[in-house]
Amino acid sequence: MSFFSESQQQTIEQLKTTANHLMTNVPPKFGDCVTLSCLWHRVYSVDYDVVPRVVCGDLIVNGEPAFVLKEPIPMPGADQALIIDAWDGHAWLEIDGLIGDLSLFRTAAALSDDHPIRTSLEGHYGTGKGMMLFSKE
What we know:
With 137 residues, this protein is α+β, with helices and mostly antiparallel strands. Helices cover 39% and strands 19% of the residues. The protein is built from four helices and six strands, in the order H-H-E-E-E-E-E-H-H-E. The strands form two sheets. Strands 1-4-5-6 form a four-stranded antiparallel beta sheet, covered by helices on one side. A hairpin with a 2-residue loop joins strand 4 (90-95) and strand 5 (98-101). Helix 3 packs across helix 4 (116-125). The longest helix has 20 residues, at 6-25. The two termini are 17 Å apart.
């Protein structure tokens, strides 16, 4: 018996397919959680006619704050450019009781070898990982 429902198992396969497409075609960039989450939302919505949620908030790793949302994502300026380099939160996708994240391993890999986020993720999951997917439960 699977931990995931039949519906969730189908969603997982769809998320894996769309994530693989994005991870193959979008170059890695540190702190690209908003962009990747929004792209994933769009690709998934178009491919499967189901609308996941992009969620922004805090990211806690091993009980320590890694990214803490203090302010909303800045609005575009007069030139319509978004300035998210100074934004301090994290973004991910939620659908069917699942949480998906495409940027966390990419961000960790860009950090110094002894950074707590990197050592925690690589110590637990290994190196060279892409999508993180788990149940909200």
